[in-house]
Design goal:
Order of helices and strands: EHEHEHEHEHEEHEEHEEEHHEH
Structural class: alpha/beta
Oligomer: single chain
CATH class: Alpha Beta
CATH architecture: Alpha-Beta Barrel
CATH superfamily: Luciferase-like domain
Amino acid sequence: MKKIGFLSFGHWSPSPQSQTRSASDALLQSIDLAVAAEELGADGAYFRVHHFARQLGSPFPLLAAVGARTSRIEIGTAVIDMRYENPLYMAEDAGAADLIAGGRLQLGISRGSPEQVIDGWRYFGRTPQDGQSDADMARHYAEVFLDVLKGQGFAQPSPRPMFPNPPGLLRLEPHSEGLRDRIWWGAATNATAQWAAKLGMNLQSSTLKFDEGGKPFHIQQAEQIRAYREAWKKASHERAPRVSVSRSIFALVNDLDRAYFGGDESQDHFGYIEADTRAVFGRSYAAEPDVLIEELKQDEAIAEADTLLLTVPNQLGVAYNAHVIEAILTHLAPALGWR
């Protein structure tokens, strides 16, 4: 059994071929797709965060709006780039959004990916300390974020406060109990997956990871998941961890599906996302349902994960993306034992 959700990058473009032509379209359609996905029986609505791009950039207003319009579906990110964040202000935003959603937030955070601008986090006032890399800075901000989510007091109250204070040191408000256990780390390497396990974060592994041996993507990803689970076990956390993987999967069940994706001949690709970092990019899946079922049975990383996030082509509109999700839930999930 697996939880199945969608992952939207929230692209928008003024192109006549796009059904998502503005930032307003991207946000409102994201809410509508989450509502539709819940009605179809999907388990999660997740959103990618990119800055300086025509994509979803400020997640918490969107997460809160989705939370107010839905009642059951998990609502998350995959991922928030921590290089840009003020972790204390982020904890306040996250606490508020989680309370609006009734405790359904599943926040994916990470060091981030290649950007639209050079060192974009500097424009947000973020500067690594001496001897730190931007990745070090992101992990430090993540640790601060996790710490304040515990809800423990740390700030000295004023002797002359505007409003009466509870006794002792003050914590950030609003605090949402349990959110600390619903933070995920988007790991591109085995080492950062193990680091996330030690800190008690769930694991998100996307359609890309750094190449650590030249094996096919799904095998490397499965190895990463197993290394994460072993590190979690050694850390002796009280709860069980969760692991998600992302995939582009399209069941070709009508002529429109075949027109959009019928010509795809996808396979893994190896390349460089940064000057000195070789990565492996996972394949997409697009075929008739019976073919897809056999192909997906061979994906070791999907088998290892408890949560599958389906990347959706959001610019094709809410109705078509709801159809994509429904096709997976109807034609594939039961046959694969996911439902």
